[in-house]
Design brief:
This protein is of the alpha/beta class and about 325 residues long. It is built from nine helices and eleven strands. Helix content is about 40%, strand content about 20%. Strands 1, 2, 3, 4, 5, 6, 7, 8 and 9 form a nine-stranded mixed β-sheet that branches. The protein has a two-stranded antiparallel sheet with strand order 10-11. The longest helix has about 40 residues, at about 220-255. The protein is elongated and about 90 Å long. Pfam families: AAA_24 (PF13479). It comes from Faecalibacterium prausnitzii. This is ATP-binding protein.
Length: about 325
């Protein structure tokens, strides 16, 4: 079904986000600031989160447990699924994959190349299931690791094998959490230090407010609201631009339809040039104008800056 692009934003969009950073920098607490989260604590690290910021959680010991828990009837009270960490999630997927088919594993118990490919596809499938079928926000948390690139040290998500190429694909947002002085920040723009991902006007480095007694842990909730607000603004602006485009196309087509001969073509030039164009209207209307002039056999005389019948111009 062909759809109007202005219909894309028909409510608050669910968001898929990746958070990465060093251990102990507060990634889990940040992830749990998303709207009504379920904490999928693959690392069994909930005890490291301050009690006031803890949320309902599961601690799966196998990937099968995750699949069994992530059923629609279990998730009515939640808007966001937080996978913490996704590196451990992928490890559980690896063990599950080898049980599915021994060819996905090697003798030492690690994944084979085929196994990494299978796990990468399963990660994308799980993200798609949570997003499209369960209709939940998704936040995946990764530890960061340093990689040397000549004299530079770069941050990368900590995940084994080619799976790191799959995890970014479905994400709407992705940022690295770092400390600048005493401030905790998250960056959504690519830079020499790390790869990140920003869309819908969410770019650059954001300061994460410090949490104190009585403060709300709602940074991602507000960020998701900002994301959807910008999306709605873009659609509204696009609808206005389309309306202006349709109006100028009507006005321009009416002017061209009134051209019957050289005199009417000359009279039409000024109002045609005065049109205020939008989107592709200039290119389309100019093509219509040239086609009409050619069909009438008119030629433009640069000396008089007027149209004349072709035989008079010779």
């Amino acid at each position: 079904m062909i759809r109007n692009p202005n219909d894309i934003q028909d409510g608050a969009k669910k968001i898929r986000m990746l958070i990465a950073g060093y251990p102990g920098i507060g990634k889990s607490t940040l992830a749990l600031s998303a709207p009504r989260p379920l904490h999928i604590d693959c690392d069994f690290g909930i005890d490291r989160i301050e009690p006031r910021y803890r949320m309902p959680y599961i601690q799966p010991r196998s990937y099968d447990e995750i699949l069994n828990d992530l059923k629609p009837e279990n998730l009515n009270d939640f808007e966001t699924l937080v996978f913490d960490t996704a590196g451990k999630l992928i490890s559980l997927m690896g063990l599950w994959a080898i049980k599915q088919n021994p060819k996905y594993g090697q003798r030492d118990g690690s994944l084979s190349l085929k196994g990494y490919g299978f796990v990468g596809r399963e990660f994308v499938r799980l993200m798609d299931y949570c997003f499209y079928e369960l209709k939940k926000n998704i936040v995946v948390v990764f530890h960061a690791t340093e990689e040397k690139d000549g004299d530079n040290t770069r941050l990368r998500i900590k995940v084994e094998g080619q799976t790191k190429n799959n995890v970014w694909e479905p994400m709407d947002l992705g940022g690295f959490v770092e400390m600048y002085g005493n401030d905790r920040t998250i960056g959504f723009s690519n830079c020499e230090r790390y790869f990140a991902k920003g869309t819908r006007g969410i770019h650059g480095v954001y300061k994460i407010p410090a949490l104190g007694p009585g403060s709300q842990n709602d940074f991602l909730t507000k960020l998701f609201e900002e994301y959807n607000s910008k999306a709605a603004e873009e659609v509204a602006a696009n609808a206005k631009e389309n309306e202006a485009y349709e109006q100028v196309m009507r006005d321009g087509s009416k002017i061209i339809a009134g051209i019957k001969d050289a005199d009417t073509a000359n009279a039409a030039m000024q109002p045609f040039k005065a049109l205020h164009h939008h989107l592709t209207s200039s290119r389309e209307l100019n093509a219509q104008w040239k086609a009409k002039i050619a069909a009438l056999g008119l030629t433009f005389d640069p000396n008089s800056t007027q149209y004349k019948p072709a035989e008079e111009a010779q």
